[in-house]
Write a structure and sequence with these properties.
Radius of gyration: 22 Å
Strand content: 15-25%
Number of domains: 2
CATH class of the largest domain: Alpha Beta
CATH topology of the largest domain: Rossmann fold
CATH architecture of the largest domain: 3-Layer(aba) Sandwich
Protein backbone atom coordinates (compact mmCIF):
# COMPACT_ATOMS: atom_id res chain seq x y z
CA UNK A 1 0.00 0.00 0.00
CA UNK A 2 1.26 3.51 -0.83
CA UNK A 3 1.12 5.63 2.33
CA UNK A 4 2.06 9.30 2.53
CA UNK A 5 2.70 10.52 6.08
CA UNK A 6 2.46 14.28 6.50
CA UNK A 7 3.58 15.95 9.70
CA UNK A 8 5.72 18.64 11.20
CA UNK A 9 8.18 16.52 13.18
CA UNK A 10 10.44 13.65 12.11
CA UNK A 11 13.82 12.07 12.75
CA UNK A 12 16.53 12.91 13.61
CA UNK A 13 14.40 14.43 16.39
CA UNK A 14 14.67 12.04 19.34
CA UNK A 15 11.91 13.41 21.58
CA UNK A 16 8.18 13.80 21.29
CA UNK A 17 6.09 13.36 18.15
CA UNK A 18 9.04 13.19 15.74
CA UNK A 19 10.37 10.02 17.37
CA UNK A 20 7.08 8.17 16.97
CA UNK A 21 6.34 9.43 13.46
CA UNK A 22 9.73 8.28 12.18
CA UNK A 23 9.36 4.91 13.88
CA UNK A 24 5.86 4.59 12.41
CA UNK A 25 7.16 5.20 8.90
CA UNK A 26 10.02 2.73 9.32
CA UNK A 27 7.80 0.02 10.82
CA UNK A 28 5.20 0.41 8.07
CA UNK A 29 7.95 0.17 5.45
CA UNK A 30 9.29 -2.95 7.16
CA UNK A 31 5.82 -4.49 6.87
CA UNK A 32 5.94 -4.12 3.09
CA UNK A 33 4.22 -0.77 2.52
CA UNK A 34 5.57 1.96 0.26
CA UNK A 35 5.96 4.93 2.60
CA UNK A 36 6.89 8.54 1.94
CA UNK A 37 7.20 11.41 4.42
CA UNK A 38 6.61 15.17 4.12
CA UNK A 39 7.92 17.07 7.14
CA UNK A 40 9.96 20.06 8.34
CA UNK A 41 13.67 20.22 9.17
CA UNK A 42 14.39 18.90 12.68
CA UNK A 43 14.12 21.60 15.35
CA UNK A 44 12.36 20.14 18.41
CA UNK A 45 12.65 20.31 21.39
CA UNK A 46 15.50 22.83 21.22
CA UNK A 47 13.41 25.24 19.10
CA UNK A 48 16.27 25.76 16.68
CA UNK A 49 17.01 23.95 13.45
CA UNK A 50 19.60 21.24 13.93
CA UNK A 51 23.09 21.51 12.52
CA UNK A 52 23.27 20.28 8.94
CA UNK A 53 19.80 21.56 8.05
CA UNK A 54 18.49 24.98 7.02
CA UNK A 55 15.16 26.45 8.07
CA UNK A 56 14.39 27.97 4.65
CA UNK A 57 15.51 25.14 2.40
CA UNK A 58 13.58 22.42 0.58
CA UNK A 59 15.42 19.16 0.92
CA UNK A 60 15.00 15.52 -0.11
CA UNK A 61 16.72 12.64 1.65
CA UNK A 62 16.37 8.96 2.41
CA UNK A 63 16.10 8.28 6.12
CA UNK A 64 16.51 4.60 6.98
CA UNK A 65 14.80 3.48 3.81
CA UNK A 66 11.98 6.07 3.84
CA UNK A 67 12.02 8.88 1.22
CA UNK A 68 11.70 12.15 3.15
CA UNK A 69 10.84 15.57 1.71
CA UNK A 70 11.40 18.54 4.00
CA UNK A 71 9.69 21.91 3.63
CA UNK A 72 10.90 25.22 5.09
CA UNK A 73 9.46 26.67 8.29
CA UNK A 74 10.05 29.57 10.62
CA UNK A 75 11.22 28.66 14.13
CA UNK A 76 10.67 31.34 16.80
CA UNK A 77 13.28 31.69 19.52
CA UNK A 78 10.51 32.07 22.12
CA UNK A 79 7.34 30.25 21.05
CA UNK A 80 4.26 32.06 22.31
CA UNK A 81 0.69 32.40 21.09
CA UNK A 82 0.98 34.40 17.88
CA UNK A 83 4.54 33.37 17.07
CA UNK A 84 3.58 29.71 17.49
CA UNK A 85 0.69 30.12 15.03
CA UNK A 86 2.99 31.78 12.47
CA UNK A 87 5.49 28.96 13.02
CA UNK A 88 2.86 26.29 12.28
CA UNK A 89 1.36 28.23 9.38
CA UNK A 90 4.78 28.66 7.74
CA UNK A 91 5.11 24.90 7.39
CA UNK A 92 1.48 24.40 6.32
CA UNK A 93 2.03 26.83 3.44
CA UNK A 94 5.57 25.87 2.43
CA UNK A 95 4.70 22.16 2.32
CA UNK A 96 1.87 22.61 -0.22
CA UNK A 97 4.20 22.34 -3.27
CA UNK A 98 5.47 19.03 -1.90
CA UNK A 99 1.91 17.72 -1.63
CA UNK A 100 1.31 18.69 -5.26
CA UNK A 101 4.39 16.70 -6.26
CA UNK A 102 3.29 13.69 -4.22
CA UNK A 103 -0.09 13.73 -6.00
CA UNK A 104 1.65 12.23 -9.04
CA UNK A 105 2.72 9.29 -6.85
CA UNK A 106 -0.99 8.71 -6.13
CA UNK A 107 -0.89 7.57 -2.50
CA UNK A 108 -3.65 5.26 -1.33
CA UNK A 109 -3.64 6.67 2.21
CA UNK A 110 -2.72 10.19 3.31
CA UNK A 111 -1.99 10.26 7.05
CA UNK A 112 -1.73 13.63 8.77
CA UNK A 113 -0.02 13.77 12.17
CA UNK A 114 -1.39 16.43 14.53
CA UNK A 115 0.02 18.79 15.55
CA UNK A 116 -0.53 20.67 13.32
CA UNK A 117 -4.17 20.82 12.27
CA UNK A 118 -3.30 23.79 10.02
CA UNK A 119 -2.07 21.15 7.56
CA UNK A 120 -5.49 19.47 7.43
CA UNK A 121 -6.82 21.39 4.38
CA UNK A 122 -3.76 20.39 2.33
CA UNK A 123 -3.98 16.75 3.45
CA UNK A 124 -7.69 16.55 2.66
CA UNK A 125 -7.22 18.22 -0.74
CA UNK A 126 -4.47 15.76 -1.67
CA UNK A 127 -6.59 12.79 -0.59
CA UNK A 128 -9.61 13.98 -2.57
CA UNK A 129 -7.53 14.75 -5.67
CA UNK A 130 -5.91 11.31 -5.73
CA UNK A 131 -8.81 9.20 -4.44
CA UNK A 132 -6.82 8.31 -1.33
CA UNK A 133 -8.28 7.73 2.12
CA UNK A 134 -7.57 10.50 4.63
CA UNK A 135 -6.35 9.44 8.09
CA UNK A 136 -5.83 11.94 10.93
CA UNK A 137 -3.65 10.78 13.83
CA UNK A 138 -3.83 13.04 16.90
CA UNK A 139 -0.82 13.11 19.19
CA UNK A 140 -2.04 16.31 20.85
CA UNK A 141 -5.32 18.25 20.84
CA UNK A 142 -3.54 21.48 20.06
CA UNK A 143 -6.60 23.77 20.09
CA UNK A 144 -7.58 22.64 23.59
CA UNK A 145 -3.99 22.88 24.77
CA UNK A 146 -3.45 26.33 23.25
CA UNK A 147 -6.36 27.88 25.16
CA UNK A 148 -6.04 25.70 28.26
CA UNK A 149 -2.37 26.53 28.75
CA UNK A 150 -2.82 30.21 27.95
CA UNK A 151 -0.74 30.01 24.77
CA UNK A 152 -3.71 31.73 23.13
CA UNK A 153 -5.80 34.20 25.06
CA UNK A 154 -9.50 33.71 25.68
CA UNK A 155 -11.59 31.15 27.49
CA UNK A 156 -13.87 28.57 26.02
CA UNK A 157 -16.65 31.14 25.53
CA UNK A 158 -14.52 33.73 23.70
CA UNK A 159 -15.11 34.39 20.02
CA UNK A 160 -11.62 33.20 19.09
CA UNK A 161 -12.08 29.95 20.99
CA UNK A 162 -15.47 29.34 19.41
CA UNK A 163 -14.07 29.88 15.91
CA UNK A 164 -11.06 27.63 16.59
CA UNK A 165 -13.15 24.86 18.11
CA UNK A 166 -15.72 25.07 15.33
CA UNK A 167 -13.04 24.87 12.65
CA UNK A 168 -11.44 21.93 14.42
CA UNK A 169 -14.76 20.05 14.55
CA UNK A 170 -15.39 20.71 10.86
CA UNK A 171 -11.98 19.40 9.85
CA UNK A 172 -12.08 16.34 12.08
CA UNK A 173 -15.36 15.17 10.57
CA UNK A 174 -13.91 15.25 7.04
CA UNK A 175 -11.32 12.51 7.64
CA UNK A 176 -12.07 8.86 6.87
CA UNK A 177 -10.29 7.74 10.05
CA UNK A 178 -9.41 9.71 13.17
CA UNK A 179 -7.06 8.01 15.62
CA UNK A 180 -5.36 9.04 18.82
CA UNK A 181 -2.95 7.60 21.36
CA UNK A 182 -5.29 6.67 24.22
CA UNK A 183 -8.92 5.58 24.61
CA UNK A 184 -9.77 8.82 26.45
CA UNK A 185 -8.33 10.93 23.64
CA UNK A 186 -10.34 8.91 21.12
CA UNK A 187 -13.40 9.63 23.22
CA UNK A 188 -12.56 13.33 23.11
CA UNK A 189 -12.53 13.12 19.30
CA UNK A 190 -15.98 11.55 19.43
CA UNK A 191 -17.14 14.38 21.69
CA UNK A 192 -15.91 16.79 19.02
CA UNK A 193 -18.26 15.26 16.48
CA UNK A 194 -16.30 12.39 14.92
CA UNK A 195 -18.46 9.33 14.31
CA UNK A 196 -17.30 6.51 16.59
CA UNK A 197 -17.22 4.12 13.62
CA UNK A 198 -14.42 6.19 12.09
CA UNK A 199 -12.19 6.30 15.16
CA UNK A 200 -9.27 4.10 16.18
CA UNK A 201 -6.93 3.90 19.14
CA UNK A 202 -3.29 3.82 18.04
CA UNK A 203 -1.20 4.09 21.20
CA UNK A 204 2.44 5.03 21.22
CA UNK A 205 4.68 2.00 21.51
CA UNK A 206 8.05 1.05 22.92
CA UNK A 207 10.69 -1.43 21.80
CA UNK A 208 11.05 -3.50 24.96
CA UNK A 209 14.15 -5.15 23.51
CA UNK A 210 15.91 -1.77 23.29
CA UNK A 211 14.54 -0.40 26.59
CA UNK A 212 14.83 -2.87 29.46
CA UNK A 213 15.92 -3.02 33.12
CA UNK A 214 19.68 -3.23 33.61
CA UNK A 215 21.08 -5.74 36.07
CA UNK A 216 23.85 -3.37 37.15
CA UNK A 217 23.71 0.30 38.19
CA UNK A 218 23.51 2.76 35.31
CA UNK A 219 26.76 4.38 34.22
CA UNK A 220 25.05 7.75 34.67
CA UNK A 221 25.30 7.39 38.45
CA UNK A 222 29.07 7.41 38.22
CA UNK A 223 29.15 10.16 35.59
CA UNK A 224 27.00 12.42 37.75
CA UNK A 225 28.73 11.56 41.01
CA UNK A 226 25.58 10.23 42.66
CA UNK A 227 26.21 8.20 45.83
CA UNK A 228 25.49 4.46 45.41
CA UNK A 229 22.76 4.42 48.09
CA UNK A 230 20.85 7.46 46.86
CA UNK A 231 17.35 7.26 45.41
CA UNK A 232 17.37 8.87 41.96
CA UNK A 233 14.31 10.74 40.68
CA UNK A 234 14.44 11.19 36.90
CA UNK A 235 12.59 13.45 34.47
CA UNK A 236 13.64 12.88 30.87
CA UNK A 237 11.89 14.53 27.93
CA UNK A 238 10.69 17.78 26.46
CA UNK A 239 10.70 20.84 28.68
CA UNK A 240 7.82 22.95 27.41
CA UNK A 241 4.68 24.64 28.65
CA UNK A 242 2.63 21.45 28.96
CA UNK A 243 5.15 19.54 31.03
CA UNK A 244 4.97 21.72 34.13
CA UNK A 245 8.66 21.13 34.75
CA UNK A 246 8.70 23.99 37.28
CA UNK A 247 6.51 21.86 39.57
CA UNK A 248 9.20 19.21 39.80
CA UNK A 249 11.84 21.87 40.42
CA UNK A 250 9.76 23.08 43.37
CA UNK A 251 9.54 19.50 44.70
CA UNK A 252 13.32 19.20 44.42
CA UNK A 253 13.68 22.44 46.38
CA UNK A 254 11.29 21.14 49.04
CA UNK A 255 13.47 18.01 49.41
CA UNK A 256 16.79 19.84 49.39
CA UNK A 257 17.31 18.70 52.99
CA UNK A 258 17.27 15.05 51.93
CA UNK A 259 20.82 14.30 50.72
CA UNK A 260 19.76 10.69 50.02
CA UNK A 261 17.39 11.77 47.20
CA UNK A 262 18.91 13.04 43.94
CA UNK A 263 17.03 14.62 41.02
CA UNK A 264 18.13 14.27 37.40
CA UNK A 265 16.56 16.41 34.65
CA UNK A 266 17.39 15.56 31.05
CA UNK A 267 16.01 17.28 27.96
CA UNK A 268 15.52 20.57 26.22
CA UNK A 269 12.76 23.02 25.40
CA UNK A 270 11.37 26.48 25.97
CA UNK A 271 11.18 26.03 29.77
CA UNK A 272 14.73 24.78 30.27
CA UNK A 273 16.20 28.21 31.08
CA UNK A 274 13.71 28.62 33.92
CA UNK A 275 14.55 25.13 35.19
CA UNK A 276 18.27 25.91 35.19
CA UNK A 277 17.64 29.09 37.16
CA UNK A 278 15.52 27.25 39.74
CA UNK A 279 18.06 24.44 40.17
CA UNK A 280 21.23 26.54 40.17
CA UNK A 281 21.46 26.63 43.97
CA UNK A 282 20.23 23.07 44.60
CA UNK A 283 22.95 20.52 45.32
CA UNK A 284 20.48 17.65 44.87
CA UNK A 285 19.81 18.47 41.18
CA UNK A 286 21.64 17.46 38.00
CA UNK A 287 20.56 18.95 34.65
CA UNK A 288 21.60 17.26 31.40
CA UNK A 289 21.07 18.15 27.75
CA UNK A 290 19.35 15.71 25.41
CA UNK A 291 21.35 12.50 25.29
CA UNK A 292 22.13 10.38 22.19
CA UNK A 293 19.43 7.87 21.29
CA UNK A 294 21.85 5.00 21.87
CA UNK A 295 22.22 6.15 25.50
CA UNK A 296 18.48 6.20 26.23
CA UNK A 297 18.30 2.84 28.01
CA UNK A 298 21.30 3.68 30.19
CA UNK A 299 19.71 7.04 31.03
CA UNK A 300 16.28 5.64 31.90
CA UNK A 301 17.91 3.06 34.15
CA UNK A 302 19.55 5.72 36.30
CA UNK A 303 16.09 6.24 37.79
CA UNK A 304 14.73 4.59 40.88
CA UNK A 305 11.61 6.69 40.37
CA UNK A 306 10.36 8.26 37.15
CA UNK A 307 8.30 11.42 37.49
CA UNK A 308 5.69 13.00 35.22
CA UNK A 309 4.77 16.48 36.46
CA UNK A 310 1.78 18.09 34.79
CA UNK A 311 0.03 21.42 34.83
CA UNK A 312 -3.58 21.40 35.96
CA UNK A 313 -4.79 23.00 32.72
CA UNK A 314 -3.13 20.26 30.64
CA UNK A 315 -4.19 17.30 32.76
CA UNK A 316 -6.94 16.10 30.43
CA UNK A 317 -5.27 17.09 27.16
CA UNK A 318 -2.24 14.86 26.76
CA UNK A 319 -0.98 11.30 27.16
CA UNK A 320 2.77 11.87 27.61
CA UNK A 321 4.76 9.96 25.00
CA UNK A 322 7.70 9.61 27.39
CA UNK A 323 5.63 7.26 29.57
CA UNK A 324 6.31 4.27 27.30
CA UNK A 325 10.05 4.29 27.92
CA UNK A 326 9.53 4.80 31.65
CA UNK A 327 7.36 1.70 31.85
CA UNK A 328 9.68 -0.42 29.70
CA UNK A 329 12.66 0.44 31.93
CA UNK A 330 10.93 -1.30 34.82
CA UNK A 331 10.88 1.54 37.30
CA UNK A 332 8.10 2.95 39.49
CA UNK A 333 6.36 6.09 38.22
CA UNK A 334 4.94 9.09 40.05
CA UNK A 335 2.59 11.01 37.77
CA UNK A 336 0.33 14.01 38.10
CA UNK A 337 -3.06 13.14 36.62
CA UNK A 338 -6.76 13.56 37.23
CA UNK A 339 -8.87 10.50 38.07
CA UNK A 340 -10.48 8.95 35.00
CA UNK A 341 -7.78 10.00 32.53
CA UNK A 342 -5.81 7.41 30.58
CA UNK A 343 -2.61 8.48 32.33
CA UNK A 344 -4.22 7.92 35.72
CA UNK A 345 -5.52 4.51 34.66
CA UNK A 346 -2.05 3.34 33.57
CA UNK A 347 -0.03 4.76 36.47
CA UNK A 348 -2.50 3.43 39.05
CA UNK A 349 -1.11 -0.01 38.17
CA UNK A 350 2.55 0.99 37.96
CA UNK A 351 3.16 3.77 40.48
CA UNK A 352 1.52 6.60 42.41
CA UNK A 353 -0.91 9.15 41.00
CA UNK A 354 -1.04 12.61 42.58
CA UNK A 355 -3.19 15.65 41.69
CA UNK A 356 -1.83 18.02 39.01
CA UNK A 357 0.21 20.96 40.34
CA UNK A 358 0.18 19.58 43.91
CA UNK A 359 3.83 20.05 44.76
CA UNK A 360 3.43 18.77 48.31
CA UNK A 361 1.73 15.56 47.15
CA UNK A 362 4.45 15.02 44.56
CA UNK A 363 7.21 15.44 47.14
CA UNK A 364 5.36 13.17 49.59
CA UNK A 365 4.99 10.42 46.97
CA UNK A 366 8.72 10.61 46.18
CA UNK A 367 9.60 10.34 49.87
CA UNK A 368 7.17 7.44 50.29
CA UNK A 369 8.73 5.43 47.48
CA UNK A 370 12.28 6.37 48.46
CA UNK A 371 11.66 4.72 51.84
CA UNK A 372 10.21 1.51 50.35
CA UNK A 373 12.53 -0.24 47.86
CA UNK A 374 10.39 -3.39 47.88
CA UNK A 375 7.34 -1.46 46.74
CA UNK A 376 9.42 0.31 44.08
CA UNK A 377 10.57 -3.06 42.78
CA UNK A 378 7.01 -4.42 42.65
CA UNK A 379 5.69 -1.35 40.84
CA UNK A 380 8.64 -1.46 38.44
CA UNK A 381 7.92 -5.10 37.62
CA UNK A 382 4.27 -4.21 36.95
CA UNK A 383 5.41 -1.37 34.68
CA UNK A 384 7.65 -3.71 32.70
CA UNK A 385 4.83 -6.24 32.28
CA UNK A 386 2.48 -3.52 31.07
CA UNK A 387 4.97 -2.39 28.45
CA UNK A 388 5.63 -5.91 27.22
CA UNK A 389 1.98 -6.94 27.05
CA UNK A 390 0.31 -3.77 25.79
CA UNK A 391 2.85 -1.45 24.18
CA UNK A 392 4.86 -3.70 21.89
CA UNK A 393 5.20 -2.53 18.26
CA UNK A 394 4.19 -6.01 17.07
CA UNK A 395 0.73 -5.90 18.68
CA UNK A 396 0.05 -2.27 17.87
CA UNK A 397 1.14 -2.46 14.24
CA UNK A 398 -0.80 -5.67 13.62
CA UNK A 399 -3.94 -3.74 14.57
CA UNK A 400 -2.78 -0.70 12.57
CA UNK A 401 -2.14 -2.81 9.48
CA UNK A 402 -5.54 -4.40 9.87
CA UNK A 403 -7.30 -1.05 9.92
CA UNK A 404 -5.34 0.07 6.85
CA UNK A 405 -6.46 -3.05 5.00
CA UNK A 406 -10.08 -2.44 5.98
CA UNK A 407 -9.74 1.14 4.83
CA UNK A 408 -8.26 0.54 1.40
CA UNK A 409 -8.05 -3.22 0.76
CA UNK A 410 -10.15 -5.82 -0.99
CA UNK A 411 -13.10 -7.54 0.65
CA UNK A 412 -11.02 -10.66 1.38
CA UNK A 413 -8.22 -8.58 2.87
CA UNK A 414 -10.69 -6.59 4.93
CA UNK A 415 -12.25 -9.76 6.36
CA UNK A 416 -8.87 -11.16 7.42
CA UNK A 417 -7.82 -7.77 8.73
CA UNK A 418 -10.99 -7.38 10.78
CA UNK A 419 -10.28 -10.69 12.50
CA UNK A 420 -6.67 -9.65 13.17
CA UNK A 421 -7.82 -6.30 14.53
CA UNK A 422 -10.27 -7.96 16.90
CA UNK A 423 -7.62 -10.38 18.16
CA UNK A 424 -5.07 -7.59 18.65
CA UNK A 425 -7.57 -5.40 20.47
CA UNK A 426 -8.80 -8.03 22.93
CA UNK A 427 -5.80 -7.61 25.19
CA UNK A 428 -5.55 -3.82 25.02
CA UNK A 429 -9.04 -2.33 24.77
CA UNK A 430 -10.15 -0.06 27.59
CA UNK A 431 -13.72 -0.29 28.92
CA UNK A 432 -14.87 3.13 27.79
CA UNK A 433 -17.29 4.52 25.26
CA UNK A 434 -14.73 4.81 22.46
CA UNK A 435 -13.45 1.23 22.65
CA UNK A 436 -16.99 -0.13 23.04
CA UNK A 437 -18.05 1.69 19.90
CA UNK A 438 -15.06 0.31 18.03
CA UNK A 439 -15.92 -3.24 19.16
CA UNK A 440 -19.41 -2.85 17.73
CA UNK A 441 -17.85 -1.56 14.50
CA UNK A 442 -15.58 -4.56 14.18
CA UNK A 443 -18.54 -6.92 14.66
CA UNK A 444 -20.52 -5.08 12.00
CA UNK A 445 -17.59 -5.10 9.57
CA UNK A 446 -17.12 -8.83 9.97
CA UNK A 447 -20.79 -9.53 9.32
CA UNK A 448 -20.77 -7.22 6.26
CA UNK A 449 -17.91 -9.02 4.59
Amino acid sequence: MRILIYGLNYAPEVAGVGKYTSEMAELLAARGHEVRMVCAPPYYPQWRVQEGYRAWQYRRENWRGVPVSRAPLWVPARPRGLTRIVHLASFALSSLPLLVREAFWRPQVVMLIVPTLLCAPGALALARATGAKAWLHIQDFEVDAAFGLGLLQGGGASRGARVANGTERLLLRRFDVVSSISPRMVERAIDKGVDASRTACLPNWVDTKAIYPLRVPSAYRRRLGIAPGNTVVLYSGSMGAKQGIEILADAAAALAGRPDISFVFCGDGAAKHELLARCASLANCHVLPLQPAEELNELLNVADIHVLPQRNDAADLVMPSKLTGMLASGRAVVAMARPGTSLSDVVAETGIVVPPEDRDALAAAIVELAADPERRAALGAAARRYAQQRLSPEAIFAAFDARLAMLAGTAAEAHAAAQALQSAAEGTAAPDRASTSQSRLREAEQSDV
